[in-house]
C-alpha cells in the first residue's frame, strides 16, 4: 500500500480498475472475485482495515508492471491472483452477498466483457 495511507491506492484503483478488468475479464479466472473486492473496498460500510487490505491488493492488480508482467500469457496474472486471493481470504467475512451479486451483474453486462 502507498505510504501515507490508502488514499493513493484508492485513487489508482478508482482510475485504473475498470479499464484493467475490461481488458482481462475473459482471460482471468478471478475476475468475479476482483470485482466483488472492488465493490467491498469502496463500500463505506466496510471496516477501514478491510478496505485498506483490498485497496492494496487491487492497486497491485491494476499496476501495469509488477513481479510478473501482465502481458505474459497465462503467467502474467498469477502473482495478481495470489495477492488478491490472500487479501480476500483475510477479509472474506466482510465481502457480502451484495458485493458478490453486484460483481456477477457487472460481469454479465455485455459492455464489460
Automatic annotation (TrEMBL):
Principal subcellular localisation of the protein: membrane
Compartment list: Endomembrane system
Entry keywords, A to Z: Membrane, Transmembrane, Transmembrane helix
Source species of the chain: Hansschlegelia zhihuaiae
Protein name per its UniProtKB record: DUF1232 domain-containing protein
This protein's record includes keyword Ribonucleoprotein: no
DUF1232 domain boundaries: 51-85
GO CC annotations, alphabetized: endomembrane system
Lineage: superkingdom: Bacteria
Topological category with respect to the lipid bilayer: Multi-pass membrane protein
Amino acid at each position: 500500500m502507498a505510504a501515507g495511507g490508502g488514499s493513493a491506492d484508492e485513487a489508482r484503483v478508482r482510475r485504473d480498475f475498470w479499464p484493467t478488468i475490461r481488458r482481462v475479464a475473459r482471460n482471468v479466472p478471478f475476475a468475479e472475485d476482483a470485482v466483488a473486492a472492488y465493490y467491498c473496498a469502496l463500500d463505506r460500510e466496510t471496516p477501514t482495515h478491510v478496505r485498506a487490505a483490498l485497496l492494496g491488493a487491487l492497486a497491485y492488480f491494476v499496476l501495469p508492471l509488477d513481479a510478473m508482467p501482465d502481458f505474459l500469457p497465462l503467467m502474467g496474472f498469477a502473482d495478481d491472483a495470489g495477492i488478491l486471493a490472500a487479501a480476500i481470504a483475510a477479509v472474506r467475512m466482510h465481502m457480502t452477498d451484495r458485493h458478490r451479486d453486484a460483481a456477477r451483474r457487472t460481469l454479465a453486462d455485455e459492455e464489460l466483457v
